[in-house]
Structure formats: C-alpha cells, structure tokens
Amino acid sequence: MIDSHATDDNLSTGIAIRVNYYFRVAEDLLVRAANRAMSAVEYTHLGVDRLLHRQPPPVRYTLIRSLGVGFFTEVMVVLDALLFCRLSGRIPVTHWGDECRFGDLSGADAFTRHFYEPLSPYGVADLIQPHFRYYPTGWNRRNLAGLPPLYRIRRKSDVTAGNYRLLLDSSSDVIVVRRLRRPADFAGLMHGLLADDAELGGKCLLEIYRFLAGTHLHPRPEVTAVVDAMQREHLGDAPFLAVHVRGADKVSELAGLDVLNDHYDALIAAQMRKHGFEQFLLLTDDSRIAERFRRRYGRQVVMTAAQRTDSEEMLALYRDATPASYRLGLEVMADVYLATRARVFIGNAASMTSMMVGILGTFTSDRLILLAARDGVLNFDAASYDLCTVVPVVEAHYHIIHI
C-alpha cells in the first residue's frame, strides 16, 4: 500500500529542490549579466583596443638616478633621459638620492625636494614592486631607493648607438639611468628615430633640448623667487650681458684654458659697446677669476654670493656632502636661470653650465657666443652650432672628455 503522506513529502521535496535550482540558475544569470555590464563599462574606459581584445601597452618607467657629478651635468642626464622616455613611451621618475652631491642626506629625491617640479606623478616608492623587472642587472626592489650597487652599474647603464634602439624596446618594467652617452655621439640615429615626431622631427639637438626643457623642467616656485630677488638686487630692469668663465678643475680637462679665458675681455668690450650695457653678470666657480674681474671691471661686474674655490681638484666645491649641500645646487641653479634673462650670453662651449644657459634661454645665434677649443665642440650636433656664434681658440684643446 502506498503511503500518500510519504508521496506528498517526496513531491514537496522534489519541487523545493527544483525551485531552489532555478533560483540558483537565475541568480547566476543575473550575476553574469551584471559582470558583463561592469566589464563593458571598464572596457569603455580602457578604450577600443580592449573591446577588440587587444591588451593595452604595459606601463613602464625610467628611473633617473644621480651620477654624483656637477649640477648641470646631472640636469643634462635628466634631459637625455626625457628624450629616451619620449622615444620609448616610458614614464620618467627621478631619484637623486644620497649619492647626489646636492642633496640633504635624507635619502629623499633632491631633484623634486629642492630644485624642480616632479616630471611625473610617481616616485621611487611606486617602482618598488615584487613582480617588476629592473635593468641593468644589479638593481632590484631592495636597493632601488638606496645607494647604487657597487659593481659595474655605471658601465652597464651606458646608452650607446649600439644598444639605444634595443633599450627602447626593452621589456624591463624599470630601466635605471645614471649616465646616458651624449646623443651628439650618434646624432644620425637620433634624427632617424625622431623623423616622424611632429614636434621634434628635423630639429637639431639644441632645439630638441630646448623643447624638452621648456616642456618638463619647471623650477620650484621658491627657486624662481630667489632668481627674481637676485635680479632686483643686482641688475634691476635694465638689459644686461651675462658671462660664464670656467676655472678650478676645468684645467684638468681643457689644456690652454687660461689662453681661452684671455679672449673674454675683447668679447665683453664689444658686446658692452654694441648694446650699451652698463653692467654684466659674471658666473664663475673660481675665486681667482672672480677677483681678477673685480680688479679689472670694478662696478661694471656683478656677481652673486655663490660659493667659489681656488682649488683645481676635480669637483672640489662638491667633495664633502652635508645636510646643507643642496644650497650649493640652489646657488648654481639660480645663477644660471638669472643668466638666461640676459640680452647676450658669452660662455665656454666645453662647459655644461654654459650649454645649459643656451638651452634654458631664448638667445638668437648672434647673442649666444661660445668660446671653443680647436677640437671643436662636443655636446651637440654640428647643426646646433648654427644657432650659436662659435669663437675658436686654437691654443686650447681637450685632455679628457667627460659627459
């Protein structure tokens, strides 16, 4: 005999199981529909490439570290790295750490703490990721923000004509740059890589650097305020001539530097007479040169209170890092940015400081005058010097060549 109550219970249980099953199916369909809708929104934000199942290009970085050299040689490395980033699509990040001669020994990025606005929204901490790959070998997430590895990082991070194109396509998440070979060494390759660049194609290197500096190098507001105050105090609103004369350790690099420096007086006299300047601004790192100009020109020469040396030892001014070393960098930076406001500039083609005045300023070719050794000029391609007035000094020639 069939138990009707048992049959009813079994039927109820079966119906409940089936209803529960349909509820779960419906819930699953709703979740899938919601996920598809959310994905569609996400894909819309990521662009058409994702909708077509193409992955977006990976986000990769160039970390620009300090080489521990002169201030504007460091800045020139930043400009070289910015050009590399433009060609490779990488994001520039700076970290001038305790190896920098112009920091404060805090381990922070001196570039952004004391001198310039950040090149991107990122800092070195954002680049310390467990899944990131770093180039060159020796850098890793444990030492990325610290002092550079001791072994041959410098050589491995050199960029030359032979490896530049390969590094542009590198799959490393972070390429650490401390030294980039001067693009003038392989200007032909550089111009080829930039041929399709709407803004830089066909430009000489001086024009390229001027574009990069104008686009990316923005002094911190307090630096600009110092330059404004220096101009008010020393020069006022009258047009002026700026002159940069190298001494100190430059004698170890440029034979005949004294002879080259002897040519300044005639150039200064000609420009003072031509433009009616009453004063000129002198930039020099050598206290002996500063004293010679004071004796010769009296009140006609204006100098800021920057630190100077009478030593010919390499980087004598920057030898001992202290928590206040950044002040020396601020002095050099302020002097150069003040010089960019001059009507005419006379400098040394072998000096990175002189070249940076030409890059950061807006001088026409007849108002950017550079004394050059018989070996020629090193920092740019030949076409760049059509934008300058080059005065050759045959008695001067290079002993050694630094970046």
List key phrases describing it.
globular, Rossmann fold, 14 helices, 403 residues, disordered C terminus, 4-stranded parallel beta sheet, alpha/beta
What can you see in these coordinates?
With 403 residues, the protein is α/β, with parallel strands linked by helices. The protein folds into three domains: 48 residues; 156 residues, Rossmann fold, CATH 3.40.50; 172 residues, Rossmann fold. The protein contains 14 helices and twelve strands. The strands form three sheets. A six-stranded parallel β-sheet has the order 8-7-5-9-10-11, with helices on both faces. The chain has a four-stranded parallel β-sheet with strand order 2-1-4-3. The longest helix has 43 residues. It starts with a helix and ends in a 5-residue tail after the last strand.
Question: In CATH terms, what is the fold-level topology of the largest domain?
Answer: Rossmann fold
End-to-end distance: 104 Å
Structural class by sheet pairing and helices? alpha/beta
CATH architecture of the largest domain: 3-Layer(aba) Sandwich
- Beta fraction of the residues? 5-15%
Order of helices and strands: HHEHEHEHHEHHHEEHHEHEHEHEEE
Please give the domain count: 3
Record the SSE blueprint.
Blueprint: H1 4-46, H2 48-51, E1 61-65, H3 71-88, E2 91-95, H4 110-115, E3 134-135, H5 153-156, H6 164-168, E4 174-177, H7 187-193, H8 205-216, H9 221-234, E5 241-245, E6 254-255, H10 257-262, H11 264-275, E7 280-284, H12 287-297, E8 301-302, H13 326-339, E9 344-348, H14 352-360, E10 368-373, E11 389-393, E12 397-398
Parallel strand pairs: 1-2, 1-4, 3-4, 5-7, 5-9, 7-8, 9-10, 10-11
Antiparallel strand pairs: 6-12
Helix pairs in contact: 3-8, 9-13
